[in-house]
Design a protein that fits this description.
The chain contains 11 helices and 13 strands. It is an alpha+beta fold and 331 residues long. The protein has a 5-stranded antiparallel β-sheet. A two-stranded antiparallel ribbon has the order 3-4. Strand 8 and strand 9 form a beta hairpin. Helix 4 runs antiparallel to helix 5, helix 5 runs antiparallel to helix 7 and helix 9 packs across helix 10. The radius of gyration is 21 Å and the shape is globular.
Length: 331
């Protein structure tokens, strides 16, 4: 799936996303993307969403760390300190289904990660700068349009006994952060779109939490929406075509990729996937030996999820300049 979704707790916050961004005095404007290439780090976050008027921000404004902390950590207006609804509750200790205790933190937002298909990352990584800019802008436009679609289709709140009533909102407040590479150092153009768990109810402008169930149900459709927009615009602007590639072993579904970007080249830039494949193969063989039968499709998926976690390397403390990464990828 091109888009994934995960809950963002008050404990995790946005520390990593800010740790790897450029310094505040290196603001990147749409007209001059020099710092994308020359300075260490990834671009500063930008605000998106129709609900930004509620915190006195506009789409495209730079996301500063104080503003993000006010909204995501404290649920207050970044300028006035006015509470945006109820404060986030304190962490609670609960017993999970395995009988173990765990600490649960308030959900302050939802991290929607939009990753371009690997063939698009390969084209972007190996292209001259002007074409890189064009592909990046196409990706941004698809993310923006998908957020607008989500606002129309899934950014709601609930009210009444057991949340029986669905109510409209003024729109989402989201912070978007671009990243260039995977944990394994492969080119992987992707954007973390962090949607705040605070929206204004359209009936009375009260600040409430959004309905996460509706958002999660819309995840697959949002992914397909983004994918379609991305490939359509690339075709219209660059003349590219796309084809359906059959999945490799232990993966889920066929994927849509750019025609002409060879599968061997895609695999060359998929070190992270190769590590997961190898570990999945080991776990499948181990399961087969201990159960005298191969695992079911559902069990194989769970084993792959286990392999994904066990092979995950630490994220880098700093991000290299895109100019340096591009040179390495071309070499």
């Amino acid at each position: 799936m091109t888009m994934s979704i995960a809950r963002l707790s008050a404990q995790s916050g946005l520390k990593y996303l800010f740790k790897t961004t450029m310094l505040d005095d290196l603001t990147v404007t749409p007209a001059d993307a020099t710092t994308y290439y020359m300075k260490a780090g990834t671009p500063q976050g930008r605000w998106l969403g129709s609900g930004l008027q509620g915190i006195s921000r506009t789409s495209g404004d730079v996301v500063t760390e104080p503003d993000a902390k006010a909204l995501f950590d404290h649920a207050v207006h970044p300028d006035t300190g006015t509470p945006l609804g109820r404060p986030y509750g304190q962490p609670t200790v609960v017993q999970n289904s395995q009988g173990r205790t765990e600490t649960r933190h308030a959900v302050v937002g939802f991290d929607l990660t939009f990753s371009v298909p690997k063939s698009v990352s390969v084209l972007w990584a190996l292209s001259p700068r002007a074409l890189q800019d064009q592909i990046l802008q196409t990706h941004h436009d698809a993310v923006d349009a998908t957020l607008q679609w989500l606002e129309e289709s899934a950014i709601h709140t609930r009210a009444g006994r057991n949340g029986v009533a669905y109510l409209g909102t003024r729109g989402a407040i989201a912070a978007a952060f671009d990243h260039w590479e995977s944990r394994a150092g492969d080119p992987q153009l992707h954007t973390h779109l962090v949607i705040a768990n605070r929206v204004q109810r359209i009936t009375d402008d009260a600040w409430v939490t959004l309905d996460s169930r509706t958002l999660y149900k819309a995840a697959v459709a949002a992914s397909e929406h983004y994918n379609g927009l991305l490939f359509d615009t690339l075709h219209r602007n660059l003349g590219t075509d796309a084809d359906i590639r059959e999945p490799a072993a232990n993966t889920h579904n066929p994927s849509q990729q750019l025609t002409g970007v060879d599968q061997v080249l895609i695999r060359e830039f998929s070190n992270r996937s190769r590590l997961i494949d190898l570990e999945t193969d080991r776990l499948v063989a181990e399961w087969t030996a201990s159960h005298s039968a191969p695992p079911s499709a559902t069990t194989t998926i769970k084993l792959r999820q286990q392999a994904t976690l066990s092979t995950r390397s630490a994220k880098p403390e700093t991000a290299a300049p895109l100019r340096q990464l591009s040179a390495q990828w071309r070499a």
